[in-house]
Amino acid sequence: MAMICISITFSMLGLSYAAVPLYKIFCQITGYGGTIQRAEEKSKFVSDQRIRVRFDANVSHDLGWKFIPKSRSVSIKLGQISKAIYEARNVTDKVSYGTASFNVSPQAAGIYFNKLECFCFTQQRLSAGESMDMPVVFFVDPEILNDPLLKRTKTITLSYTFFLDKNFKKKTS
Q1: Domain boundaries, the chain
Q2: Which tens digits make up the pLDDT trace of 55-68?
Q3: Against a cut of 0.70, is the pTM above it?
Q4: pLDDT tens for residues 57-97?
Q5: Which CATH superfamily, name and number, covers 11-164?
Q6: Please, are residues 123 and 97 in contact by the beta-carbon 8 Å criterion?
Q7: Which residues are 38's β-sheet partners?
Q8: End-to-end alpha carbon distance in the chain
């Protein structure tokens, strides 16, 4: 009986450590929680149907950056590749490091929103007063029209939030 209890305890401990990576994989596969898909190539089909993609930008209060999309929205054909530019500016008097996370709403659209190029989850360094343009290249899969929950969706919002990267590692050139 003691061996069974010890086995269950260690199994539960192992599952608790595996929960975060397993959840991340689940979200990437299903698009759950607005997780965007990472595409290696462009869409094979471009529809005449259009969708509006709205851009949102947020910054954690402790970062000291201004972060804005250069354009608030774009109207694109489904399957058409588009590029959005965000601008980040360090408004402090010292070097700081930030990392961005993202999401899409409505959340169910995450599986159809495909990024070809993105700055998210990559450490960004800005010197005092420095600004940087950050591009996002994406397309919305025309398969969204076959999803009964989303086929009438007219707007998708892509939202980024920058956080202070307290565990920065200086990049070597």
Answers
A1: 11-164
A2: 999 999 999 999 99
A3: yes
A4: 999 999 999 999 999 999 999 999 999 999 999 999 999 99
A5: Ctag/Cox11 (2.60.370.10)
A6: yes
A7: 115
A8: 58
> In the Cβ-directed half-sphere of 72, how many Cα atoms lie within 13 Å?
0
Which residue type, as a one-letter code, is found at position 12?
Answer: M
Extract the tokens encoding 129: 């007063």
